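Box S1 | Example of a co-folding query
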Amino acid sequence: MKFFVDTADVDAIAELNALGMVDGVTTNPSLIMKSGRDILEVTKEICEMVDGPVSAEVVATEADDMIAEGRKLAKIADNIAVKVPLTWAGLKACKTLSDEGNMVNVTLCFSANQALLAAKAGATFISPFIGRLDDLNLDGLDLIEDIRTIYDNYDFETQILAASIRTANHMSEVAKIGADVATAPPSVIKNMANHVLTDKGLDAFLQDWAKTGQKIL
Ligand code: G3P
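Box S1 (continued) | Returned holo structure for SN-glycerol-3-phosphate
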């Protein structure tokens, strides 16, 4: 499973990138707002840091305007994936932008039917939002499973990009289901390293080591 980082914070991306943890980056208008940076400037900087796809989202709501914004965003770098919302207009923009050779990430997906339409419209990535379904007492992981089944049934090439990931547990669950990509905030990716038994075991080792009076360096 590929790891995308869901942030526009360049320092956080750099830290994970140095460990080989970054196969791509996803941003959205809320993350750009949080970064306090200009969208074109920060996206260009991220594209230069990371080899994989960097999603940059349109904000227009009509197809023609989305296409115009998407073309402008795609000019930032070769590794831009234009992100469009899963509306009828977004699907039209997806078809045009992908026919023009751009990577397209269709976002705000909350149903298997929406994912089916995105694949038909030539999406490179479909972004089902797990956490926001869980927030409503629905099961975001069920959605990933349904989309996996449908895409496999018909050999759709659209990659499932599990998004709105809130916990380390979400990461292993979507990996078990077979999501192609998971995008998560840096804090969630770092949290995957934590285990209470690791901390407890390390404490015991260090206490015993102190008793030996030895040093390695
Ligand atoms: O990848 C989509 C993500 O940015 C949304 O996450 O936590 O706001 O639902 P969240």
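The pocket of SN-glycerol-3-phosphate is lined by residues 6, 26, 28, 129, 131-132, 163-164, 166, 183 (CB under 6 Å). The radius of gyration is 20 Å.
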